[in-house]
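Extended Data, record Amine oxidase domain-containing protein
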Amino acid sequence: MNAAVVGAGMAGVTVARLLQEAGIAVTLFDKSKGSGGRLASRQWHGDWIDHGAPYFGAEQPAFHRFLRQRLASSVLATWQPGIAGLVAADEQSCYVGVPRSSAVTRALLAPVCFQPATRVTRLQRDGSRWQLFNDGDSLLGSWDLVLLALPAPQARPLLAALPALATQLASVEMEPCWVTVMQTATPVPLPDVEIGAHPHLRRITHNSAKPGRSRQGIYVLQASTAWSQNHLEEPPAEIGEQMRQFWLDCRPPARDSQILFCHRWRYGFTRQALGQACLWQAAERIGLCGDWCLGRRVEDAWLSGLNLARQVLGSPAATL
């Protein structure tokens, strides 16, 4: 038996790894050049910048156990940042990938056949199997199972052959987030993390303060949901200049900063979750998972992928 998993964020790599370990040949696709999803990182002059989730916490015992294993393998580190602003309890002590956020997903991918830079745009039934097509409408192959680990709005168009399943995603609402990465020429006395420093800035993270980072003075600015929505289609260059000004408005010592790059997360956060851990239609051999099933956190994505794997395998004890 074989399976195709579409989406190489935390949910996708979790379900892919568990199925692979159970003896199912898995092919994992992602439209990006690498894995990570919300744990995305970009290389910049020899160092790594995390422009997705800057860090994450853990609440469930199963996720704590998983993270302890990753700590032992040196792809994860604990981080206790100096934080300014109101934060959730699980952000007081958190985790980061080393030397980049996506190190966690890359480690999980080791035994899985991964095809990056491949956008899956269509699914088609072929008897009891599923055919996948790319954005050039070329056939990628056929598989016994298909599991979609994509944001709900991206998954829905792929479910044209299963309208009842697609309808279940209608209640899920996602929110955008613009990110601008800055670098200061000289050290600036700022907290590691600032929450709500400006009405239009959700969070400012000192990327260079994380374990395993070398380049100094790199800050990741996340815009607020409302501002991101109102400026969703503006050019990145204009977004960067506006967000830089927001930073200068609240942190004048950063005046010598320069913009490195901007990134738009069209589906950055979950506003309204599905309310169940995953979706699995055994008769059709198709399933969906993602943080949006349960919430908006990295842990939610992991739990969703874990639960989908358990349903596919019929094994409630399966775990990483």
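Summary. The chain is about 25% helix and 30% strand.
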